[in-house]
Amino acid sequence: MTERTGRAAAPGGGAVPPAADDGHPSRVRRHTGALQEVPRPLRVASEVCARLLVIAAGLALLVFLVVQLRVVVVPVAIAVLLAALLAPLVRWLHVRRVPRALATALVMVGGLAALGGLLTAVVGTLVDGTAGVVQEVTGNIGSLQRLADATPFDLDVGVLGDQLMVLVRDNQQTLTSGAVSTAATLGEILAGFALCLFTLIFMLHDGSRIWSFVRLLAPRARRARIDVAARRSFASLVGYVRATVLVAVVDAAGIGLGLWLTGVPFVLPLAALVFLGAFVPIIGAVLTGAVAVLVALVTGGPVPALVILGVVLAVQQLESHVLQPLLLGRAVRLHPLAVALAVATGVVIAGIAGALLAVPLLAVLTAAVRSLAASREAAPRTVDPLLAREGEPPPATAG
């Protein structure tokens, strides 16, 4: 027999205790009291730390996957950079009634021809000028020795050169094995180049259709806002790549002209090196400028080296104070500290490739965050991802 209170009679005549209920008032009070025993700042801090640990674990997993798949990720990322540079040219041809497939082919063939011509000229200059450079270095050993004698260190340039030759001869086997590993790396580079070329062709020809499919992965409620953020990110990337190429051309032309006027050999290879180094902010300009000064020192002596040092410093000042603020404009607004930290992080994670891709990735993420955080945004169809000025969301209106 059961009582009206709902308790069942036990076989021995006693009442069965009520089952535990999470919603029971007494249990809720005990749980609330336990929470009140933990200070609120400590409870908030622990919850924030737990969420940060989850985010850090996700980012660490993402970085691990990127590093493991770097043979695929790096060529695709470079293809995206090249697409941001060449896509406006493809559309320019397409607007003028050139079929898109033909416009893509013309741009690709023209780019490959320019790259092949530059490589041929650089390699030819290196081969033709090596013998002359060796003679110039041999003739300048005396001036280099006098320069070394002016320092507080006891240096003998001739002895250093002889020791270098002995070191190379004694480590010939190590250098041979290094050449084998270099050949394997060269194979990876060729495979990456083929993947980059293949990806770039489809991005230039079917970029809008590829993005139309990718955007379907976003939640339906936020799809339009994410679409706008992605368009502004690519527009910011277009502005960044275009400005970086123009800055690189100015750097290479300025330093190359200084090398030519001072009679330093290897003008074209050094100018090409400066051009490539400009794509790595801060580090690239310093390293390539140092190489140019060092070549001027060993081939021409201290006076040409000082002249080239002045040219390098003048070009870098022109780049940092005039060209970058003027060319990047409002489309890509990155603080110098953020750029330095991004380059350092990229070098630690992926070496040269990381340094090359860190700042463009930072520019893309910055544009996306600004767009998503804006109080209002335009419709996706009104944002042209190939115009650099579209990288900035509209200003918020008062009220």
UniProtKB/TrEMBL annotation:
Q: Please list every transmembrane segment annotated in the UniProt record, as residue ranges.
A: 48-67, 73-93, 105-127, 189-218, 239-260, 266-287, 294-316, 336-369
Q: Which UniProt keywords apply?
A: Cell membrane, Membrane, Transmembrane, Transmembrane helix, Transport
Q: Where is this region: Disordered?
A: 1-27
Q: Where in or outside the cell?
A: Cell membrane
Pfam families given in the database record: AI-2E_transport
Domain of life per record: Bacteria
Q: What is its main location?
A: membrane
How does the protein associate with the membrane?
Answer: Multi-pass membrane protein
Family named by the database record: Belongs to the autoinducer-2 exporter (AI-2E) (TC 2.A.86) family.
Official protein name in the record: AI-2E family transporter
**What organism, scientifically named, is this protein from?**
Pseudonocardia spirodelae
